[in-house]
Amino acid sequence: MKKIALFGGSFDPPHTGHIAIIEEALEQLDIEKIVVVPAYVNPFKSGSHAPAVLRLAWLNQIFDHRSDVKISGFEVLQERPVRSIETVKHFKDEADQIYFIIGADNLASLTQWHRYDELNDLVTWVVAARDGIDVPVTFITLDIAKPVSSTELRETIKIHELPESVAQEITQFYKEKNAKKN
Length: 182
What we know:
The chain is α/β, with parallel strands linked by helices. It is built from seven helices and six strands; from the N terminus they run E-H-E-H-E-H-H-E-H-E-E-H-H. Helix content is about 35%, strand content about 20%. Helix 4 packs parallel to helix 5. The radius of gyration is 16 Å and the shape is globular.
């Protein structure tokens, strides 16, 4: 039985917290690989700070040495917001079981996601614990001890919270972007 995990998000920028989630998922879940799926634009947001192709390139650079981590350009190539159900259906022929990783901050609105009931039937939910949010026992929980926020990193670049292989490039991008705002 082939099992994969899907981990989507904006990754704007990708950081050590994302890596911790991926590492913990590979450790804890019985999966062959984890598929990281950066969003072109998150359906719940109006845009992103770094262009989708750049975020995709950063992720490829970070994980190019890992055979158990696949970076997928599926959502980026759509050039539009893609709902989770669409992404899951795209990958459903690749595995008999799909784990779907979300952050605990998504729990409150999860049942309001587009075609939630259908999505719920297709995946096994995995929640990355975050910000002290209680995760119901019906979910698999990944305990992540890295309270890193992409939002915070965009404003106050903390290079030690960025993956080493792309830290300089990410830092430069957001410094220039922040300078243009002021």
